[in-house]
Write a structure and sequence with these properties.
Elements (H helix, E strand, L loop, with lengths): L21 H32 L1 H12 L1 H28 L6 H28 L2
Length: about 130
């Protein structure tokens, strides 16, 4: 307990009061989606190997990826792919020295998030429409 001789020090920010800037959240998401792309790529390799391995292996892989859980994983993989792609474009723009102002950084970070969600929905709407 502070007294008159010991001034109280400010507390460090913690998760209940600290607001993450959108640029920080997108930076973390960029790293996470990069890691998720490894797992998703292994799934695609599994599908290709199953296709080359014969009818039974292909049917099992097709069933697994065609199930509800498989489709959710593929949906997430699609979003991770678009998010990581647009995050790379965002970093490329920053490498040119553009969009570094505080307002522009936030706009381009929001565009990264909204664009990745929109592109994912568009791709999956096309997939469902052509079935």
């Amino acid at each position: 307990m502070p007294d008159a001789l010991t001034p109280s020090r400010p507390l460090s920010p913690h998760l209940q009061i600290y607001r993450w800037p959108i640029t920080m959240a997108m930076s973390i998401a960029h790293r996470v989606t990069g890691g998720a792309l490894y797992i998703g790529t292994l799934l695609l390799i599994w599908l290709l190997v199953a296709t080359a391995s014969g009818q039974k292996a292909y049917e099992f892989a097709s069933w697994a990826l065609g199930s509800l859980v498989g489709k959710l994983v593929l949906f997430g993989y699609t979003w991770a792919l678009f998010h990581h792609l647009l995050g790379g474009v965002r970093h490329f723009v920053w490498d040119t020295g553009r969009a570094m102002e505080p307002g522009a950084r936030d706009v381009i970070a929001w565009a990264n998030l909204i664009g990745s969600v929109a592109l994912t929905i568009i791709v999956w709407a096309i997939v469902w429409a052509t079935r």
